[in-house]
């Protein structure tokens, strides 16, 4: 595995672990939830930068009939992930109790935050599922390397 894929995989694993911790805001503390929540959004943006070549390539060909359906589905799921993560982050800042002390909009922004977080989790599962063969290959390579 090349260095870029190693960095991408490491970043992805870190993001997945952090996201798992963030789904229960009382696991560590509300401060952790708010600060690390913003941090994982920036890691998500770095993830997009690492994958910008694929994004540009598929964006140009999204309406091309020869583009595989799985690729088109992945593109749509990824676009929805960007939107849902943006909503999680924006609403998180707006309902902040510790870091920003904004807390505007009451239940509306809390509902947006919880709903978009749930949608993000579903989309993340689909995203990982679409990358199943690649992940299986990486795990197999890792298992061989560790022998």
Give the amount of beta strand, in percent: under 5%
Percent of residues in helices: over 70%
Assign an overall shape: globular
Number of helices: 6
H/E series: HHHHHH
Compute the number of strand runs: 0
Class of secondary structure makeup: mainly alpha
pLDDT < 50 stretches: none
Distance between the termini: 16 Å
Number of domains: 1
Structure, described:
With 147 residues, the chain is mostly helical. It has one domain. Helices cover 79% and strands 0% of the residues. Helix 1 runs antiparallel to helix 2, helix 2 runs antiparallel to helix 4 and helix 4 packs antiparallel against helix 5. It starts with a helix and ends with a helix. The model has no long low-confidence stretch (mean pLDDT 87).
């Amino acid at each position: 595995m090349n260095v870029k894929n190693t960095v991408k995989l490491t970043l992805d694993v870190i993001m997945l672990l952090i996201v798992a911790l963030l789904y229960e805001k009382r696991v560590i503390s509300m401060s952790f939830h708010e600060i690390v929540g913003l941090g994982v959004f920036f890691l998500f943006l770095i993830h997009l930068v690492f994958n910008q070549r694929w994004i540009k390539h598929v964006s140009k060909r999204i309406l091309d009939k020869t583009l595989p359906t799985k690729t088109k589905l992945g593109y749509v799921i990824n676009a929805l992930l960007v939107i849902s993560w943006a909503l999680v982050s924006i609403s998180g800042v707006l309902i902040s109790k510790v870091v920003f002390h904004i807390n505007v909009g009451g239940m509306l922004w809390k509902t947006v935050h919880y709903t978009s977080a749930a949608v993000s989790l579903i989309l993340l599962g689909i995203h990982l599922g679409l990358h199943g063969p690649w992940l299986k290959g990486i795990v197999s390579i890792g298992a061989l390397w560790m022998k």
